[in-house]
Write a structure and sequence with these properties.
The complex is a heterodimer of chains A (about 290) and B (about 60).
Chain A: E1 14-19, E2 32-46, E3 56-70, H1 75-82, E4 85-89, E5 96-105, E6 115-120, E7 131-137, E8 142-147, E9 173-174, E10 180-183, E11 188-192, E12 204-210, E13 216-220, E14 231-236, E15 245-255, E16 271-276, E17 286-291
Antiparallel strand pairs in A: 1-14, 2-3, 3-16, 4-13, 5-12, 6-11, 7-8, 7-12, 8-9, 10-11, 14-15, 15-16, 15-17
Chain B: H1 2-11, E1 15-18, E2 24-28, E3 31-35, E4 41-44, H2 48-53
Antiparallel strand pairs in B: 1-4, 2-3
The chains are: A mainly beta (about 290), B alpha+beta (about 60).
Chain lengths: ~290, ~60
Amino acid sequence: MALSTNRIVYGVHSITPYARADKLPFGILKVIGGGAISLSAEFEDLFGGSNKFAWASEAKTISSEFTATVKSMPDFMFELYLGATVSTTAAAALGTVRQAITNVKGTSMVASTGIASVGIKAASEADLKDGIYVVKAVTATTYDVFIMTDIAFDKGADVTYEDDLLKITATPITLVQSAAADIPNFGLEITGDSGVIALVTDDTAFFSVSAAHGGISEITIGKTSTTFPQHGLVALSQKRADDSLFEIEIFKAVGAGFPISLEETVFAIPELTTKLLYDEVEDAIAKITASAGA
Amino acid sequence: MKEVKKEKAAKLPSSTEIMPLKDHHIVHNEHNIKIVKGEKCRVPDMFLQNLKTEKVIKKG
């Protein structure tokens, strides 16, 4: 009988986490650096007498881990590995006020005697600048506006900060009862509520805006209700020149945590670590399926 | 021509002459009104309530 074809594994193709309840995939990770199963055993050695070498050794526990380096961050990854809740907003060609104005310091800003709402000014959508905005009462009827970043200051009409405190209003804007006033060149308007305007100086409120976008995911991490759901994983090596495939299915995994690094001129490549657990139904932790090319 | 003039007149906001008790600045859409203490000026009526709140003019 001739020797069998050598089983040679090369590269990585994809990693697909799936829900154990119905085996439906969460999605597929294709922009990945690699995935590795690590099964490391601890041994109990028996020494005795004057012999310097062990008489016996037995494997104790086996630590089973699957680590993967991924180079993209789909929503489901945050759910599985950071226990996050993800809410999405559909694409909007005219932009979105993704966080309605909310009081921060004091309660006078968003009130019947303060601001009713922040909206996108009709026909000025191209001027919208992405960011988190803070509105601060300067007097009983006027306010200044600040924004946390200038990353989108080139959208539509170009703007600049007014000072080092990131103010964008050259002169405080007047809030008028039941009337909208625009934040010049930002495509936004702030409308006064119906009561006699009576802001408390230095009170603040905030809102956030996305200019025209192809969809937004808001990922909240660290809620008290956080759980890290058990899931299955299917990882495949690259298909070789002889059409052979190498598949690893992990039946029951739990993962927690991945670093998100924002570094100068470097792509974020988080490393996922999952623990492999014993699956009673499969009576296994994982299964390798290696199919040779025809 | 007369009809056009009427339309333009209708768009002008009604205004009131005030005698400011203090300096104040109104910036609101196309309005950019610098009010100087002691200098009479006209302001659109929509700002009168604010000016009372800011004590630029007397209440009542």
